[in-house]
Amino acid sequence: MTDAAISIQGLSKTYKGGKQALTDVSLDVPRGSIFGLLGPNGAGKSTLINILAGLVTKSAGHAAIWGFDIDAHPRNAKASIGIVPQEVVFDPFFTPFEMLEIYAGLYGVAKGQRRTMELLRAVHLEDKANAYARTLSGGMKRRLLVAKALVHNPPVLVLDEPTAGVDVELRQQLWAYVRELNERGTTVILTTHYLEEAEELCDRIAIINHGRVVTNQPTRQLLQLAQEKAVTVTVDRDLTTLPQAPCFERTQIVGERSLKITYSKDKVNAGEVLAALQDAGLGIVDVSTHEADLEDIFLNLTREPAV
């Protein structure tokens, strides 16, 4: 058995008409991790997930889920993964209880081993067990999709934009449940456009752009790529000209007495920046700093045009 929950090697996909969605994608998702799969719209994330789900046929390469090759052992591979899709699609005339029972049956889960009410409680839908699914709110439908993906107790859970259109309270409830699942051993793969979520939740992040992996590394290590830091300083007099110093990368007046100075934190520190301002004859009244975050790194890595 491999140590990777999902192992992908040289995966490519070309659609009819020549559209190249994935090009030689290789990555491993460590078991027990929360793994972020990020990228702009059209980058190839959904194609990759659909290949793992068995909905799209790859053009080249190999993929294995929980040690089962998706071609050689498709049934075992599919049984090892649960996928929460972007689209909220299910039969509106079934109740949540009926829907989970049906899907458990499709996965071959014996009646005595089904966890339908347990899952509904976990996603805060126990009181809606016998309501028609069409009467549920958007947030409730999202949570029902999470429960549906878990009916066969898969070791790997893929969440494809799970909090799109979900309010803040429901988002927090969902992430609390995801953390709980992860603590119990479930490997979670997350795609999201809310980059602060990925930064907070994920142990490791891969970014895809134009169908290629542009980075794949631990979140903390990825954040260290951001060397730019900004400091906003309020000084003791009106500013008519920009102060200059070799340690300033960029300087911008943002108010009558406020400056925003960008510097490279691998070359200088904030103390040197403030000392340079004092050397220019400016008294410092107030200071605030801005650290580059995952959004800044994401934008830098996905700025390159398609080759």
Automatic annotation (TrEMBL):
Pfam families: ABC_tran. The keyword Nucleotide-binding applies. InterPro entries: AAA+_ATPase, ABC_transporter-like_ATP-bd, ABC_transporter-like_CS, ABC_transporter_ATP-binding, P-loop_NTPase. Keywords: ATP-binding, Nucleotide-binding, Transport. GO terms for molecular function: ATP binding. SMART domains: AAA. Residues 6-235 form the ABC transporter domain. Coiled coil: none annotated. This is ABC transporter ATP-binding protein. It comes from Sphingomonas natans.
